[in-house]
Design a protein that fits this description.
The chain is mostly beta strands. The protein folds into 6 domains: about 210 residues, no CATH class; about 80 residues, Immunoglobulins (Immunoglobulin-like, Sandwich), CATH 2.60.40.10; about 80 residues, Immunoglobulins (Immunoglobulin-like), CATH 2.60.40; about 80 residues, Sandwich (Immunoglobulin-like), CATH 2.60.40; about 90 residues, Immunoglobulins (Immunoglobulin-like, Sandwich); about 90 residues, Sandwich (Immunoglobulin-like), CATH 2.60.40. It is about 0% helix and about 45% strand. Strands 1, 2, 7, 8, 9, 10, 11 and 14 form an 8-stranded antiparallel β-sheet that branches. A 6-stranded antiparallel β-sheet has the order 3-4-5-6-12-13, with no helix packed on it. It starts with about 35 loop residues before the first strand and ends with a strand.
Length: about 750
Amino acid sequence: MRKRGQSEKGFVFAVILLVLGTSLHAFTGLTEANAGGPDYFGYRYIDSNEPSGPVYNWVDITATGTFPSGLNNSDDHYVNGIPIGFVFSFYGQNYSQLSITNNGILCFSGGGPQAHNAPIGSSVIDNFVLPYWDDLVTWGAPPTGIFYETLGTTPNQMFVVEWLNNEHYYNSPSGITFEVILYEGSSNILFQYQDVSFGDGGIDYGASATVGIEGPTGQGLQYSCNQSIITENLAVLLTYSDLPPIANFMYTPSQPTDLENVSFVDTSFDYDGYITAWSCDFGDGTQSVEQNPIHQFSDDETYAVSLTVTDNEGVNATSIVLISVLNVGPTADFLCTPEHPTILDIVQFTDLSFDLDGSIVSWSWEFGDGTYSSLQHPTHQYTQKTTFTITLLIMDDDGAFDSLSTSVTVSNIPPLANFTYTPAHPTNATDISLSDASIDDDGSIIGWWWDFDDGTYSNQQNPIHRYYIDGDYYVAFTVTDDDDATNTTHQVIVVYTPAQNQPPYEPLNPNPPDGAINVSLNGSLSWTGGDPDVNDTVTYDVYFGMSSPPPKVMMNQSGTSYDLPPLSYKTRYYWQIVAWDDHGASTQGLVWTFTTLSAPNNPPYTPQDPIPSNESMNVSVFADLRWTGGDPDAGDIVTYDVYFGATSPPGKIISNQTNTSYDPGTMVNGTTYYWRIISWDDQHASAVGPLWCFTTEKLTDVTPPTVVITSPQKNFFYINPTFRTPPRQVNVFFLFQI
């Protein structure tokens, strides 16, 4: 026997009445199946192991249901006249009340003891529902009992009867729990089983029970009789076959966006059969025949999604649901550069906003100082040093807005402390003039404080101070601006004793050596130095430039080398080193010089712009040849080799001429001439010009002249007159004998 307080398992049988077209249960397939019928009237059964069978969904009424007193602590008892709460149709007859018995029976024609079960059609009484007909008692260890209750509202009510922890008459170790549910508006009956083990293998799991229904004629539909096939969490649905399927579905998420996949879950069912086909129209021009499709809508609007299901008898049913697909709003974001600006900075505002399902079409910036911008990436300069709240409001192409605000503090620029002093190498017998060289970019300096490191101080801007003991003094100079910001700088002032000091050695051994040529453009200066006083510290001032004497470029450096900036080609540079010791004594080196290497040579320009132009016709036989040349390197000397002739390629006729023209002499009429120019610079680089050609003019009058000689009359002589008749010239030679 189960002890009080132990966990209880129940065996539940439910009868459900459904209004056609109203979905009360969703059905999903399981791995094993059991279905049967129809009986003579058209009832069928299907259990939750069938793919399209019911889903086990326990309805617990033990806390709210009614326990008839006639069934308390009883055996083979029954109570008549139990109100159903609605009209229930069973085998074509309507009933509003029924009888409940100890032994797992609902009777529509009055109860009876019926202690021992029998197969459907063999019982003494008829017109009953058998969720679990066995010899049950309610005198077991509590909690135990039989409860009934009508749930829901018209037209979707259900009448539930629950047998809780009912033991077997033969003193079983524990009881079983099951229930039956009748559904308003249909003839459907649902059995559900929570616990079907008495703790006795001979009577567990329906081994001594009958499960089914029987009408008033003594005929009915049997699920099992004395078979151990009733399992925990089993649901058995009995339906009247003259019912269409119920189309229904769920979808998630409940408020989808146009970026999300919508999962459709079919919850359709068929009481008297099973669904064989699904057709889903998503309302956007696309369809699916899957039972549980996944779909993404392309735009934010309302879609009429319809599901049409077809059962195994070819009957269709359709459900339409309006699904509103939402726009995904934009996300505002931006970046300020610099993050901590000053009034001298131009702040760059960079829009980093995005819209996952569209585009951003407008930007509205509020800079917090009364100014605005509608640019996507504006710039702004603040004029006050305070904290401003910047707000960016954006709108996407669906009219959705988002905004982001952040604070930017425009900071004061602290002053930059700096000072100079003279002389550069003071002694304990000289005054030192200290000069303020500080700056404040966004205001003015209003306070000065000098700590001379000898126990004395000054608040003057440009004080004069004398040290009476030689040594190194760590001078601290602090300035304060008009925003109360401070900055401090330090310099070490070395004070010397003027007597008995030897000056440093003269800087020697220059590198590059004095007068060096072809020096690299990237290098450094080096020298040797030192001081005859071994305890003296030597520093060097470096002078360097392209003029003599060169300007100072470095002072007080301790090393004997100096890195040069990039130098120019073929340039003479001057440099000098002045050595200083820590007593203010100096030695000036010589002014040295070196010349950098020449620039890499570039070849001369390719000859071009020929005169006569290439392939020109009717060129005068007296024409000169002309071209353009030159060299990209200033100072290079360019010469030209001239190739000319009536054959191609032409031969060279002159070398190393400096002019960009050449007189070929008198050419032959009607002849094609070829010519080319090769340029040479004085670094032996050359550039070969293209091969050009032209054709001279043809003779138009070839008749020889007639000559009459009147004198002299004797001797032999030659006459060589020249006749010039533009545009041609004819040289005529005659031999006369007189």
